[in-house]
Amino acid sequence: MAESSKRPVETIEQRVEALEAELAERRKSELIKDSMIIEYRQALSNAQYALAIANGQLKLATQPTE
After folding, report:
1. Could you tell me which residues come within 8 angstroms of residue 14 by beta carbon, excluding any fewer than 6 positions away?
2. From first to last of its 66 residues, what are the pLDDT tens digits of the chain?
3. What is the dihedral of CA 51, 52, 55, 59, to 10 degrees?
4. DSSP element (H, E) containing 4
5. What's the rounded Cα separation, in Å, for the pair 65 and 25?
6. Taking the C-alpha atoms of 15, 17, 23 and 24 in order, what is their torsion angle to the nearest 10 degrees?
7. Element housing 13 (H / E)
């Protein structure tokens, strides 16, 4: 409690503005995070596709001869 008395007095309007600014920053951060997740998923999908092709080529190359 002693710490709260050391803080400067803040009006309700100032507190609302501070919270709105914090919310805007968090929303921006969320958008960045979401776009990164999409990029990671796409990269993983591309890597899985390339791996499937490589596995298919390996299977064709190592077919037993009869």
Report:
1. none
2. 455 557 678 899 999 999 999 999 999 999 999 999 999 999 999 999 999 999 999 999 998 776
3. -170
4. helix 2-6
5. 63
6. -160
7. helix 12-61
Q: Which two tokens stand for residue 55?
A: 């596995």
DSSP 31-58: HHHHHHHHHHHHHHHHHHHHHHHHHHHH
User: For the chain, first and last CA: distance in Å?
Assistant: 85
Evaluate the CA torsion angle 51, 44, 39, 41 in order and state its sign.
Answer: positive
For residue 30, give every residue at least 6 positions away whose Cβ sits within 8 Å of its Cβ, in sequence order, or none: none
Task: Take residue 17 and report the two structure tokens written for it.
Answer: 């503005």
Report the alpha-carbon distance of residue 12 to residue 58 in Å, rounded.
68
